[in-house]
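R.M. (postdoc): so does anyone remember the format we settled on? I'll just put the structure tokens first.
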């Protein structure tokens, strides 16, 4: 009888452990699944535009350069920039006269405002970046080989007429992003 009780007790114990393991597995699986679901939903909302193309790659982040915003101390007001700025999507569109199109982008709040910029295909583009510091000290269009310092009054970046597509840009550390959506 004691033998019997022991066996039953042990069996119950292992059964319980088994159930817990299985539950834990499904819980983490479900969590991962819902996470990736919400990520792809977010991408859909912005037409796959915003940080989707860049993922969470921070490999170039903060090594050496200026140190400004990264790592936390920053320069007061700008310190919000690193680590992704506000995370908010701010949409904007260029103003075009058919020959050239332009838009002003504010950097003073630690992110690109706007950061999703709708651009007309086939028309040269003038981007007027405002002054930025710390994390936002530089603006980079890596696929065009452009890296501009914006600490002294900002910078005007001219791009040739672009084909339909998405062209990302970022701060020099690749921590804060924007994208040109050419259509
Ligand atoms: Cu930065």
């Amino acid at each position: 009888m004691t033998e019997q009780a022991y066996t039953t007790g042990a069996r119950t114990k292992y059964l319980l452990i088994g159930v817990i393991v299985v539950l834990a597995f499904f819980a983490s699986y479900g969590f991962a699944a819902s996470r990736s679901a919400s990520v792809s939903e977010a991408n859909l909302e912005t037409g796959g535009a915003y940080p989707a193309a860049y993922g969470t790659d921070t490999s170039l982040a903060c090594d050496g350069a200026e140190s400004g915003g990264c790592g936390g101390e920053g320069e007061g007001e700008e310190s919000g920039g690193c680590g992704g700025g506000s995370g908010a999507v701010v949409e904007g569109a260029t103003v075009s006269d058919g020959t050239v199109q332009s838009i002003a982008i504010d950097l003073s709040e630690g992110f690109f405002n706007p950061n999703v910029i709708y651009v007309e295909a086939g028309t040269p583009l003038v981007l007027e970046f405002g002054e930025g510091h710390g994390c936002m000290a530089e603006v980079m269009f890596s696929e065009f080989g452009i890296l501009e310092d914006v600490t002294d009054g900002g910078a005007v970046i001219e791009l040739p007429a672009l084909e339909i597509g998405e062209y990302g840009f970022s701060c020099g550390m690749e921590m804060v992003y924007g994208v040109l959506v050419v259509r």
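R.M.: ...and that's the designed sequence above, right after the tokens. Also worth knowing: Residues 1-45 form one domain. Residues 15-27, 29-81 have pLDDT under 50 and may be disordered.
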